[in-house]
Design brief:
Layout: E1 15-19, E2 22-26, E3 39-43, E4 48-51, H1 58-68, E5 73-77, H2 88-96, E6 99-102, E7 127-128, E8 134-136, E9 141-146, E10 155-160, E11 164-168, H3 186-198, E12 203-206, H4 215-237, E13 242-243, H5 244-251, H6 260-276, E14 281-282, E15 291-293
Parallel strand pairs: 4-5, 5-6, 6-7, 11-12
Antiparallel strand pairs: 1-2, 2-3, 3-4, 8-9, 9-10, 10-11, 13-15, 14-15
């Protein structure tokens, strides 16, 4: 079982210190996929770097400006292009005269899926970064770690000397992250989880919800959960060919039916990966409506 963390001590409108060089503000955009809201991270003391400034609303912009105050804003970093994370980045950077930084546009621009996690189609950072790139500031260094899976352009940011990882939607403390094909790929996601696990960070700071104070066992459970889903799918298909709409109510029987659309997308990501590894097959090209079966 994943050791989820459901208690979250915060107050809207307040940026709280969670590490020596890191503050967290929770944007007031709660929802089924954003949890309590999007976490905005303020890195540094004498100068600031902001990671994932969140949604573009006038109220949120005014709050960010108030928190920044007279402190120099050096850059606005974005973990990925979803509209609960990146839309405020250009507006904030323009206002304070700095650059936006991110991996770049996704490899595949998907249609609007109706989730808060739908694409921010205008996402295009001023500075496009690569895996392993490091930015040095007065008090901190920030290392860019490419973690594709949730999206192809997902970046996590390691903050030193704090040895914490701002991990966007790569890992959540209160739920599993949704992998959304065709841009999100389950195989890449599993590899990225292993990569983060091997780095031995002291804490993970996710895009939504409380921090993860003991990452290694949490990530081990996260990976085991995905393996369990694969096994459940294979078990269902052992009974005969089925569609995702038939399997979701069985495998996600304990899940709120409102989340079935997200569960269906996640199952599609699992099935595509199982197809790529030769464990399952489908009629025609993989899709939510495909008929899936075990190959002979």
């Amino acid at each position: 079982m994943i050791p989820y963390i459901h208690e979250f001590d915060f107050a809207y409108g307040e940026a709280s210190w969670i590490s020596g060089n890191v503050r967290r503000l929770v944007a007031n955009n709660p929802g089924p996929f954003t949890g309590w809201g999007t976490n905005v991270y303020f890195i540094g003391r004498s100068e600031l770097i902001i990671i994932d400034p969140g949604p573009d609303t006038d109220e949120h912009f005014a709050l960010l400006c108030k928190i920044i105050g007279d402190c120099p804003l050096r850059a606005v970093l974005v973990t990925h292009h979803h509209r609960d994370h990146s839309p405020m980045a250009p507006r904030l950077a323009d206002h304070f005269g700095c650059k936006t930084i991110g991996f770049g546009p996704p490899l595949v621009c998907a249609a609007d899926n109706g989730f808060e996690e739908a694409d921010h189609t205008g996402f295009s950072p001023d500075i496009r970064i690569r895996d392993g790139q490091v930015f040095d500031y007065e008090e901190v260094s920030i290392e860019c770690i490419h973690t594709p899976g949730h999206t192809s352009n997902h970046m996590c940011y390691a903050v030193f000397p704090d040895n914490g990882l701002v991990c966007g939607d790569h890992v959540l403390s209160w739920a599993t992250s949704v992998v959304i094909p065709p841009d999100g790929r389950m195989g890449e996601y599993l590899d990225s989880l292993e990569l983060v696990k091997q780095r031995s960070f002291c804490k993970l700071w996710p895009g939504h919800g409380p921090e993860i104070p003991n990452p290694e066992p949490f990530l081990t459970a996260y990976l085991a959960h995905r393996a369990m889903r694969d096994a459940q799918i294979m078990q269902q298909l052992a009974c005969g060919p089925q569609k995702i709409s038939q399997m979701v109510p069985v495998i996600y029987a304990q899940t709120d039916k409102k989340l079935y659309p997200a569960a269906s997308v996640s199952m599609l990501a699992h099935l595509i990966h199982l197809r790529e590894t030769g464990h399952v097959a489908c009629i025609d090209e993989p899709a939510l409506s495909s008929l899936w079966y075990l190959p002979n």
